[in-house]
Amino acid sequence: MDEIVLKAERMFKEFGSTKAVTDVTLELHRGRVVGLVGENGSGKSTLSSMIAGVYPPTKGEMTYKGQPYNPKSVLDARKAGIQYLTQEQGTIDGMTVAENMFLGEEDEMSKAGLVSIRKLNERSRKILIENGLDYVNPIKPIEHYSFEDRKMIETARSLSHQPDILIIDETTTALSQKGHERIYEIIGEQKAKGTAVLIISHDLEEIQKLCDEVVILRDGKYITTLYGEDIEPQKMRENMIGREIKGSYYRADFECSYEDEVVLEVKDLGLEGVFSDISFDLHKGEILGIGGLSECGMHELLKTIFGAIKPTSGSVTLANGNISLKNTTVSVKNKVAYIPKDRDKESLFQATSIKDNIVTSTLDKLKKGIFILPKSEKKIAQEQADKIEVKMQNIEQMVRDLSGGNKQKVVIAKWMANDSKIFIMDCPTRGIDVGVKAKIYKLMDTLKHEGISILMVSEEMMELIGMADRIITIKDGRVSEEFSRSADLSESKIISAIV
Ligand SMILES: Nc1ncnc2c1ncn2[C@@H]1O[C@H](COP(=O)(O)OP(=O)(O)OP(=O)(O)O)[C@@H](O)[C@H]1O
Ligand SMILES: [Mg+2]
């Protein structure tokens, strides 16, 4: 069954002076799962986008099922049987679920030139049910649903016509455990049906588990393809970065260390139907980890602590000055930073420059008298962007033109520029490549030693064990256990406290 479905040959894509993809050849075969890995900005989404009809290549040729293939649009590619689940939100605000599901296919469903809304809704409902999304109402506006639900609706749509090629771009890391598993299930089913699958992910263990072969890109260029035994995280990492990674990835010490001073007090915090009775102190210079399954309430907990959601009970108080964090304005003013899990949507102005995004939280610092000095604005933005290695042309570039992982970095840079004293981080390394991940861990360690406190939610147990002084686990919206940093803390100990 080694039939080639698609061959993309000697592909190039340039955006102005950026060479996003340079001379890459890729083959997709029936019933084979191919992984596409590389650092942030290495060209993975660009290559997929050309296959999926988002934009044409600058140069290169594609053959699909033996015929020359030049999709004019995403719809064109979809009609031909190529489905692309993008890294970002793939559904459109202002339309219903059903309209999103049949976007561009209305002609098939129209009766005497009119789309039958009833038919549209009925078919949507059927597809939703087939995909375990019984709770989604096709006539509701799509905004009514969470990022995860929207991704699953998009997934259901992509499978409503059996695809020949399914491309999944960094989707799993944005989803809960349940969402992951559903995607893995789909990949298995599609493979069995003979679909050619292309999957992009920074979770190298996931790639190892799922893929038959792995193509590695670096700086837009093809590096190598790994097969069989060679598909393992260390080999992939080396090829992605082009050198061995030495030294420890996480914190080197195994001491639980922080100062006695309490900086943030969370007391009996509750949010009806989500979490309850949550109490803990965050200390100066402490990295406090919170672990749990994605749906245990921990993401909402962080949002509530930051003041973005009003709790139904309890309080969040900054010990210094006894200030209650009752809304986000108070939090930002008091140097509390929040890095959400869903960064694209919650904290970036896509149509604005990198510089402006970084300096939005720092206006105080820049105001001398009442004037903002454009020079210092530039300097601060440049410094922070460099510190975390945002891959960009320059700081005037629009955020929307950055690769997914580089957008995430801009959010982190933005909060660093604000001299924050407390960092609330929700899955800070989601979607970020291994090299920069190591940098973020180093940065967290440096911040800790400068007396800054970090409250971090993570779904990666190794990240919690590797970085936190204390770990609080949450199960079904309640604290289930607390662990102190130590050399013999194991992943299984924590997992047993969260499931
Ligand atoms: N529309 C665009 N305009 C200008 N530059 C772009 C555009 N899209 C992508 N780029 C640039 O092309 C390069 C490759 O980006 P791409 O999105 O393909 O990376 P990626 O490998 O998917 O990274 P990530 O893991 O962060 O998602 C980056 O330098 C990015 O800034
Ligand atoms: Mg990408």
Fraction of helical residues: 25-40%
What fold name stands as the CATH topology of the largest domain? Rossmann fold
Strand content: 25-35%
Round the Cα radius of gyration to an integer and report it: 23 Å
User: Which architecture of the largest domain would the CATH scheme give at its second level?
Assistant: 3-Layer(aba) Sandwich
Mind sketching the topology for me?
Elements: E1 4-15, E2 18-29, E3 33-37, H1 44-51, E4 59-64, E5 67-68, H2 74-80, E6 82-85, H3 97-101, H4 106-109, E7 110-111, E8 114-115, H5 117-130, H6 147-159, E9 165-169, H7 177-192, E10 196-200, H8 204-210, E11 213-218, E12 221-227, H9 233-241, E13 262-271, E14 275-283, E15 287-292, H10 298-306, E16 313-318, E17 323-324, H11 328-333, E18 336-339, H12 343-347, H13 354-359, H14 363-366, E19 367-368, E20 371-372, H15 374-387, H16 404-416, E21 422-426, H17 434-449, E22 453-458, H18 461-467, E23 470-475, E24 478-484, H19 491-498
Parallel strand pairs: 3-10, 3-11, 6-9, 9-10, 15-22, 15-23, 18-21, 21-22
Antiparallel strand pairs: 1-2, 1-4, 4-5, 7-8, 11-12, 13-14, 13-16, 16-17, 19-20, 23-24
The chain binds adenosine-5'-triphosphate (ATP) and magnesium ion.
